[in-house]
Structure formats: C-alpha cells, structure tokens
Write a structure and sequence with these properties.
Elements (H helix, E strand, L loop, with lengths): L5 E5 L3 H12 L3 E5 L3 H10 L1 E2 L3 E5 L4 E4 L2 H7 L2 E4 L3 H11 L8 E3 L12 H9 L5 E5 L4 H5 L4 E6 L3 H11 L4 E6 L2 H23 L4 H22 L3 H4 L2 H12 L4 H10 L4 H8 L5 H15 L4 H11 L4 H9 L8
Parallel strand pairs: 1-2, 1-6, 2-5, 6-7, 7-8, 9-10
Antiparallel strand pairs: 3-4, 8-9
Helix pairs in contact: 4-5, 8-9, 8-11, 8-12, 8-14, 8-15, 9-11, 12-13, 14-15, 15-16
Bound molecules: NADPH dihydro-nicotinamide-adenine-dinucleotide phosphate (NDP) and 1,3-dihydroxyacetonephosphate.
C-alpha cells in the first residue's frame, strides 16, 4: 500500500487528464495543471475537461489549477504529460519548485532541438539524486479515462522508485509493469508514432491488410536496429512500450498519428491534416529525429525516412511506397 496522497499532473490535454482521472478515482488527491487559464477556469466550472475528454466528469478528488509552481511544490510526486515540444520548458519551470518526491513523465518523444532522450534533460535539470521514471505503453487516453483495462510499463534506473511509483499509479483498470530499460521504453513510445503515420498512409492509399502487417513488422525491425545502436533491450521492444504500442497505433483510428497518415494518403496536406486533428501528433517531430538518429548512428530506417520525406519534402505517398518496394533484395534478418 503506497503512502502517496497527492499527485500533481502537469498537462491538461487528453493524456494528462486521463491519468488524472484514473488517479483521482483511486482516491488520490490530484491537481491537474493546464497552461491556459481560461481552459482551467472552464474545467473548474464544469467539473470536466470539455476540450479534450468531454464525456468524463471529474471526481471530487480532482482539481484543475493554473498555479504550476504551487501545485508541484505541494505534491508527493509529479506526473508530467505535456507534448515533447513543451517538455524542456515545463521541466525548467518546475525544477526549482519540486518537493522531495519523484518525477514521472508520460510524454512520448525526444527533445527536437538536441535529439536527446527526455531522461537526459531530466538528469541535467534535476541532478542525479532526484528519482525519476517514464511511463509508456499501449494506452489511448479515452479508454483509460472511461475505465477500460490498460497496461503500461514504468521504467526507472532506480528499482525501489519504480516499485513505489507502480504502487500509486497502478490499480483499478490500470496494470503497471516495471523495467529498468529507460532507453528501450522511451524508444518504443516515441518512434512507433512515426510508424503509425506510415500505416495510416498505407491505409489512406487504399492498400490492404498485407501492406499494414508488413509495415508493422518491418517497422519493428527498424525499432530493433535503432535499439541495438542505443542500448535498448530487445525484450523491451517486444513488450508493451514497443510492439504493444506499435500494434495499437498502427491499427486503430483513435491514434492521431495513424489519422495523420490516413489524411496524407488521401491527399490532404500536412498542415490541413494537423489542423483537423487539433491535438498533439508527436510522430511529425519524431520523424525528423528518426532521420537524424539513423544518420548519426548509421542505422537503416527506410520506413521512418520515407515518412519524413512525405512530411517535409512533399514526396507523394505513392512514390514513397514504390521506392520502399523497389529497394535492393536482402535477407529478412
Ligand atoms: N492521448 C493519448 O492517448 C496519449 C498520449 N501520450 C503522450 O502524452 C503527451 C501529451 O499528449 P496529449 O495529452 O495526448 O496531447 P493533447 O494534444 O491532447 O494535449 C496537449 C496538452 O499539452 C498542452 N501543451 C501543448 N503544448 C504545450 C507546451 N509547449 N507547454 C505546455 N503545455 C503544452 C496543451 O495545452 P492547450 O490545450 O492550451 O493547447 C494540452 O493541454 C504526448 O507526448 C503523447 O504522445 C501518451 C499516451 C497516450
Ligand atoms: O500513444 C498513444 C497510445 O498509446 C496515442 O497515440 P496517438 O498519439 O497516435 O494518438
């Protein structure tokens, strides 16, 4: 039984709100920070997050706030759920105000400017003594928010902290597994978004189930090669935060990354598609990072590279697929 009573959830989008709802339903006191004061006032007045999860009312134990510094200074632990593009700035902002507890983030992505893993930013800002961990896995916000069964992996270099965090995060319909493979868990969560765009493009072009399954498995091969070059463990990439999340987001239209790909495959521009989705589509910036990592590490990532060319070089999706199919023959592994 955990003695954690108060958790600060930073980021009042879909995922932060879903996690906050889950924790509040477990009986924890949860403060949910949103950056937009008008949005926070609306959540306080309506007792729900009409912008991101309109159908799920807040329990009495969940309070929205725009006082970030006050919230994190009072919390036993902090759960960060902002998009990767805002991670660094929010981390800088909260670092001087954290209480004595740990930091967990549920962001999927890397730092675009530096292409560094988020745990490297955390170590730089919070130093070696602050316990931290990253939570990732196949988890659509709407499903967790509605109390549907979900499983995540929580990775931390500190095994005791991972077990403690698991105790207050898990329960009800959320099962949490621990891991110490912090690179593997971040790698799967981030780069599957690029592959979900690829699967969406394929389906948007009207290609069939064969093509989708090929993209998922050859995409997994790209994750494995990147993992081998960065120290991730194969079993992590075959687990919830790798294959689990890859299959989820490549096959279900709740995925915003897959929906972006569908729209591109059906002829929409990147700008039109991102605007229509209106929420974080992390695979766009992660596609740039994939190209940078593949080149810096000498890793072959043809699907991720073609996604980046479709996104940023106006390569027509049909040509991207033709080029993938006409690559030189080679052994599967
Ligand atoms: N949604 C999901 O099912 C899941 C999402 N994730 C991950 O969680 C992270 C957050 O995504 P999600 O909640 O879905 O995104 P949403 O688009 O639903 O919400 C984004 C939230 O972050 C805020 N925000 C946007 N940019 C910044 C910034 N620069 N600084 C501070 N806050 C910012 C937005 O504020 P505003 O409303 O004012 O724009 C909004 O509250 C992503 O990394 C995503 O991959 C992980 C698992 C599941
Ligand atoms: O990461 C997610 C589910 O695990 C959410 O995927 P999207 O960001 O593509 O919606």
């Amino acid at each position: 039984m955990s003695d954690v009573r108060n958790v600060a959830v930073v980021g009042a989008g879909s995922w932060g709100t879903a996690l906050a709802l889950h924790l509040a339903r477990k009986g924890l006191g949860v403060g949910l920070w949103g950056r937009d004061a008008d949005h926070v006032r609306a959540m306080q007045a309506e007792g729900r997050n009409a912008r991101y999860l309109p159908d799920v009312p807040f329990p009495a134990t969940l309070e929205a706030t725009s006082d970030l510094e006050g919230l994190v200074s009072r919390a036993d632990h902090v759960l960060l759920a902002v998009p990767s593009g805002g991670f660094r700035a929010v981390l800088h902002r909260i670092a001087p105000h954290l209480g004595s507890g740990g930091l967990i983030w549920a962001t999927k992505g890397l730092d675009l400017d530096s292409t560094r893993w988020l745990h490297e930013l955390v170590l730089e800002d919070l130093g070696p003594d602050r316990p931290w961990g990253v939570a990732s896995g196949p988890s659509f916000a709407g499903e967790l928010a509605r109390g549907l069964p979900t499983a995540l992996t929580l990775a931390s270099p500190d095994t005791d902290f991972a077990e403690e965090a698991m105790a207050w995060l898990a329960g009800g319909t959320l099962r949490v597994y621990t891991s110490d493979d912090v690179v593997g868990v971040q790698l799967g969560g981030a780069f599957k978004n690029v592959l979900a765009i690829a699967a969406g493009v394929s389906d948007g072009l009207g290609f069939g189930a064969n093509a989708r399954a090929a993209l998922i498995t050859r995409g997994l091969a790209e994750l494995m090669r990147l993992g081998a070059a960065t120290g991730a463990r194969t079993e992590t990439l075959m687990g919830l935060s790798g294959l689990g999340d890859l299959v989820l987001t490549c096959t279900d239209n709740q995925s915003r990354n897959r929906r972006l790909g569908l729209a591109l495959g059906q002829g929409q521009s990147l700008e039109e598609a991102v605007a229509a989705i209106g929420q974080a589509v992390e695979g766009v910036s992660t596609a740039r990072i994939a190209v940078a990592k593949a080149s810096a590490l000498g890793v072959d990532m043809p699907i991720c590279s073609q996604v980046a060319r479709v996104l940023f070089e106006q390569l027509p999706p049909t040509v991207a697929v033709e080029e993938l199919l006409s690559r030189d023959p080679k052994p599967e592994f």
